[in-house]
Design brief:
This protein is an alpha+beta fold and 289 residues long. It is built from nine helices and 16 strands. It has a seven-stranded mixed sheet. A hairpin with a 6-residue loop joins strand 12 and strand 13. It starts with a strand and ends with a strand.
């Protein structure tokens, strides 16, 4: 299993925190029928995206992108010591898997220049902070953290009504440490990184496009969760705040990537998680690298 890819003048490292059964497929996707699942069960199991009890297998990971000028971390997974009572596998973790994965890529927390979050769900911001002497502090001391302004404002408004642990332990401490940049969709880092709006999963969800002069790699966050959604782009998980908008974003992303050399780096597809999008009838498939 490859954890490192080279695309153009980019080097991409995967840092995996968990790869495990998440939810039953029929629970994750409300519009999925037993009949449709049966039609796709064989290839999903072969792809290690579905277990023997029809549970979806998801990878929870970050990507580190080394450009000629920066070392950039895309999403920060689950984190340690975080109260996540609805997710037992995430709740109050104390393992060293994530930081060991970063070390295996030849990196320390001090090597990260920029952290970019596709959205602010708990499995994408967890390692933004870590617990030190009872306080949440930014894990990556030399990094600027990039949050979408619309995404941040949405969760700030929700948190004002009722405290959201993810926001208070993994987002606000970064802002309070003056490490955050709240950006709009015209944000770019030189000529190597830019934003692709993909709303629907959350109101301000974005993908990140990397590559000088072309789309060399796209990091799509939760625009897709499972390879099943490449064949059925209208299939939205129960977590999407706007399933219709999410489906539109997903199909638009797949059309953009289809039959190109752009590497599609998914957040949650099973290993190796990255591939190239090909057309399959009126839908798509992701051919893993």
């Amino acid at each position: 299993m490859s954890l490192t890819f080279a695309v153009g003048d980019l080097t991409i490292h995967r840092v995996i925190e968990q790869e495990t059964t998440f939810l039953p497929a029929l629970e994750m996707f409300p519009a999925l029928t037993g009949e449709l699942l049966a039609e796709n069960r064989s290839w999903l199991r072969q792809a290690k995206a579905l277990d023997n009890e029809d549970g979806l297998i998801l990878c929870f990971q970050s990507y580190v992108v080394k450009t000629p000028h920066h070392t950039i971390l895309i999403d920060t997974c689950i984190g340690n010591d975080k109260p996540r009572t609805t997710r037992p596998k995430w709740h109050m973790k104390t393992d060293d898997i994530y930081l060991s994965g970063l070390k295996a890529a030849g990196l320390s927390v001090g090597d990260i220049d920029i952290v970019m979050c596709t959205h602010l769900h708990p499995d994408h911001v967890g390692w933004n902070t870590r617990l030190e002497n009872g306080w949440w502090v930014p894990t990556f001391p030399n990094a600027r953290y990039v949050f979408g302004k619309g995404e941040f404002e949405h969760w700030a408004a929700q948190n004002a009504k009722a405290e959201i642990p993810t926001f208070t332990d993994s987002v606000l401490p970064v802002v309070e440490a003056n490490k955050a940049d709240l950006v709009t969709n015209d944000f770019a880092i030189g000529d190597h990184a830019r934003i692709l709006p993909t709303p629907g999963h959350t109101p301000g969800h974005v993908a990140f496009v990397f590559g000088k002069g072309r789309d060399a790699a796209v990091f799509c966050g939760d625009a897709m969760h499972s390879p099943l959604q490449t064949r059925y782009p209208d299939l939205s998980p129960k977590f999407d705040v706007d399933p219709t908008a999410a489906a539109k974003s997903r199909r638009g992303l797949l059309e953009r990537l289809c039959e190109t050399e752009t590497l599609c780096c998914t957040a949650h597809f099973p290993s190796p998680s990255a591939g190239r999008i090909k057309r399959r009838g009126d839908a798509f498939t992701c051919e893993m690298v």
